[in-house]
Amino acid sequence: MLKNENKFQAGDVFTISLSHFLHDVYSSFLAPLLPLLIDKFSLSYSLAGLLSVFQRLPSLLNPFVGIIADKVPIRYFLIFAPAATAIFMSLLGSAPTYLIVAILLFFSGMSASLFHVPAPVMIKRISGNRVGKGMSFFMFGGEIARSVGPFLILSAISLWTLDGAYRVMPIGLGASVLLFFKFRKIEISQNFKKNKNNTEVKETLKNVFPLLITVAGISFFMSIIRSALTAFLPTYVAAGGHSLWEGGIALSIVQLAGAFGSFSSGTFSDKLGRRETLKIISIVSPILMLLFVYSSGWLAVPILVLSGYFLFSSTPVLLAIINEYKSEHPSFVNGLFMTMNFISGAGSVMIIGVLSDWLGFETTYKISAFLGLLSLLFVLRLDKKEK
User: Fold this and answer.
1) 308 with 258: CB under 8 angstroms?
2) Averaged over 269-297, what is the pLDDT?
3) Run of H or E including 312
């Protein structure tokens, strides 16, 4: 597969990015379903936010998934993950209790971990000297999926009610069948075997730890704003007296804009530098968040577009930084990054949920903007020569 390690292999990058799209369409069902689940089970916002934690909880195992992925054929993770996630997420609407919803979300998180840990490592290896561009293609697939996902599940609910939404499941099953015929002959695992893995995992962890702490700070404070504008946006819109469809449309606007932000930021950082790109994102995103809170009507739409564009632009840049770190355990390092993202994402969702119960959505959104600005402190700690 790697005929020229310095060449950007567009066909293979596109295939993996497509599989990211097919998987994340189903992963994105929770946010648009949240207002309905709140009504169905009479949930507080704190309990609603806890559902996102259940979905992300398996991310704590990402480093172990990474160790496994460095040693076995990882193409099967990418093949079967969309089918597994489709099954679990399509059953959310028909779940009879809060506990069953939590269990389904946990297992969907398991399949997501098996997909997301090795996939960026594969992207890095087939992107040559344009890692930022490769990560942009990969994240574009995921963010487009999060724009399509709300429309898919809300359309299913309109046709078959909440209990009948499981009928969207065959799309994900068919996706895994198609991926099997595309991936079955790809032997990426052979490329991992070129490394002799002489470096102990413990030593790798010690060496990469300072970088992980810096990236964790950026990820956490940015994810506070991102959680407010994704996990709780449909609920925020519904709480303002608007319909579920309007909330779903608002979320899709943010996700679609985020897709284009993800698509451009990695390539942009290849030229400008990772640090400078993140500096722009960490300054602009909090300002846009405040503008959104004080906007109303159609004026909110262009602000949501810009917010989505900048908010999701940070992920490909952070992925490029992590995957450019030289290590004999690349999937393990990427797994550490994914675990860190879990802690950031789950923690920020809980913060938004608890604050919303105490202070209301509007005040919480204002606070999130100021907290998001703290990411700049960690961006400034990055090496100025980081590219």
Assistant:
1) yes
2) 90
3) none
pLDDT tens per residue, range 291-346: 998 987 788 889 999 998 998 888 889 988 887 777 767 777 877 887 887 778 77
Q: Radius of gyration over alpha carbons of the chain, in Å? A: 20
The residue among 247, 222, 228 whose CA lies nearest residue 318 is 222
Give the integer Cα–Cα distance in Å for 55 and 102: 7
Question: Is 200 exposed, middle or buried (CB count within 10 Å of its CB: 0-12, 13-18, 19+)?
Answer: exposed
**From the CB of residue 161, how many other CB atoms can be counted at a distance below 10 Å?**
11
The residue assigned the tokens 């970088």 is 211
* CA trace torsion 335, 340, 345, 347 (10° rounding): 140
Q: How far apart are CA 89 and CA 192, in angstroms?
A: 32
For 61, the token pair is 């195992």
SS3 assignment, position 335: helix
Kindly give the residue spans of alpha helices, DSSP state H, lying in 229-273: 233-239, 244-272
Rounded to 5 degrees, what angle do the CA atoms 331, 336, 337 make?
Answer: 95
User: What is the C-alpha separation between 225 and 229, in angstroms, rounded?
Assistant: 6
What is the per-residue pLDDT across 42-101, written as a single tens digit (0 to 9) for each?
998 889 888 988 988 888 887 777 777 666 666 677 788 889 999 999 999 999 999 999
pTM for the structure as a whole: 0.70
Distance CA 60, CA 117 (A): 12
Quote the tokens at residue 143: 């963010």
Confidence of residue 105 (pLDDT cuts 50, 70, 90): very high
- Closest by CA to 109, choosing from 13, 29, 35, 43, is 29
Rounded to whole angstroms, the Cα distance separating 116 from 123 reads 11
Please, which residues have CB within 8 angstroms of residue 294's CB and are 6 or more apart in sequence?
A: none
**Cβ(55)–Cβ(103) under 8 Å?**
no
